[in-house]
Design goal:
- This protein starts with 20 loop residues before the first helix and ends with a helix.
- Helices cover 77% and strands 0% of the residues.
- The N terminus is likely disordered.
- Helix 2 runs parallel beside helix 4, helix 7 packs across helix 8 and helix 12 packs across helix 14.
- It has a single domain, classed as Growth Hormone, Chain: A (Up-down Bundle), CATH 1.20.1250.
- It has 376 residues and is mainly alpha-helical.
- The protein is globular.
């Protein structure tokens, strides 16, 4: 029996025995399933926070300050990108992702307390912590790409991102129950539910094996698994396309709840439209993965940005629930295609360069919220 020297590096808890093909495939498939569930819970918290933060702020402040909590959440995503990459790489995926989820649990609780006590500064700090958690959550899709060699390339990324559809399907029902329990403190229940989603995420990531990244001589790397070549131009194009889609998505999510409220749409209609948007953000990823294998990930990313632009154009002129729903659906689906396509292109980069990519797309999202704030 020969041992791989790379598999015996200090600080890495790995099996040094030759891997069995069948057991390896089962382990990787299980890992992708766990990543999908973890990403779904992270997306549930994100969707709840995106909907409740501007509406909670509306009860405390006015003007451009309404979207400051949403902006701080996105700042948290950008700030966490590089530390998240380093921690997931050196501590291990379980420990790194659990640490990120802990930030989210604390942030959701702080937002709920700020709402009940009407302390806006507390809401702002909690929103930033929720953003830190989302910064760690971005690495679920990169981890999927890292183990995609035997599962089906970019399909693994699509399966994980598609797990976010859980948020749109279960979100409205869970949020309604949480709000009923927290009455008369409007939106506090949703904030506590966002915190609970991160607590559940900690339990889910405990199911992952304790390895950091797969170390196996002869295993295909992430770039070859996803069928990409990491040229500088392709990476720059993918990052630009994803950043544009994130700009439109974040701006739409920030502006839509306030826009619908201004058009006289009831809270139930607003929650339903945002839930549809979340489903549209994640469910198309199940299709985007196989399509990217056929036509190329950059093509998928470009098509996604065009769809998001079309949705934004419709949303600017929307005055009814149906109009907002159509706009949010197109924006969400476009974001999904752009994210899956771009993730496939950057697969195989170093953790530091992946962090820079995520920081760039988070910067695009922050710009979208800033535009929405000044347009409000």
């Amino acid at each position: 029996m020969s041992l791989s020297a790379s598999a015996l590096r200090g600080g890495r808890l790995l099996c040094a025995c030759p891997a069995d093909g069948g057991s390896t495939r089962r382990a990787e498939t299980r890992l992708v399933a766990v990543l999908g569930l973890g990403f779904g819970l992270s997306a549930l918290s994100q969707a709840l926070a995106a909907g409740l933060l501007p509406l909670a702020a509306l009860r405390m402040v006015d003007g451009p300050w309404l979207l400051l909590p949403s902006a701080l959440m996105l700042v948290g995503i950008a700030v966490a990108s590089l530390p998240a990459a380093l921690l997931v790489d050196h501590l291990g995926r379980r420990e790194g992702l659990a640490l990120g989820a802990a930030f989210g649990a604390a942030g959701g609780g702080l937002v709920a307390l700020g709402i009940t006590e009407t302390i806006y500064s507390m809401v702002l700090v909690g929103a930033f912590w929720l953003g830190l958690a989302q910064g760690f959550g971005l690495f679920y899709r990169h981890l999927a790409a890292a183990v995609a060699g035997r599962i089906g390339g970019v399909r693994a990324v699509g399966l994980v991102v598609g797990g976010g559809a859980i948020a749109g399907i279960a979100g409205p029902t869970l949020a309604g129950a949480a709000e009923a329990l927290s009455f008369p403190y409007l939106y506090a229940g949703s904030a506590l539910l966002a915190a609970a989603a991160h607590v559940a995420t900690i339990a889910v990531v405990a199911l992952m094996p304790p390895t950091v990244w797969r170390v196996d001589e002869g295993a295909p790397d992430a770039a070859s698994a996803t069928g990409t070549t990491g040229t500088g131009r392709r990476i720059a194009a993918a990052t630009a396309l994803a950043s544009g889609a994130w700009l439109i998505m974040a701006g739409s999510m920030a502006a839509a709840p306030l826009g619908m409220a201004g058009c006289g749409i009831a809270t139930g209609g607003i929650v339903g439209a945002m839930a549809w948007h979340v489903v549209a953000m994640y469910a198309p990823a199940l299709v985007a993965g196989p399509l990217a294998d056929r036509v190329g990930p950059l093509t998928i990313a470009a098509a996604g940005l065009l769809a998001a632009l079309a949705g934004a154009g419709i949303g600017i002129h929307a005055t009814t629930g149906a109009g907002f729903g159509l706009a949010l659906g197109l924006v969400g689906a476009g974001w999904s295609f752009a994210t899956v396509g771009a993730t496939a292109v950057v697969a195989g980069l170093s953790r530091g360069r992946l962090a820079l990519h995520d920081a760039a797309v988070a910067g695009g999202a922050l710009a979208g919220v800033a535009i929405a704030a000044f347009a409000a």
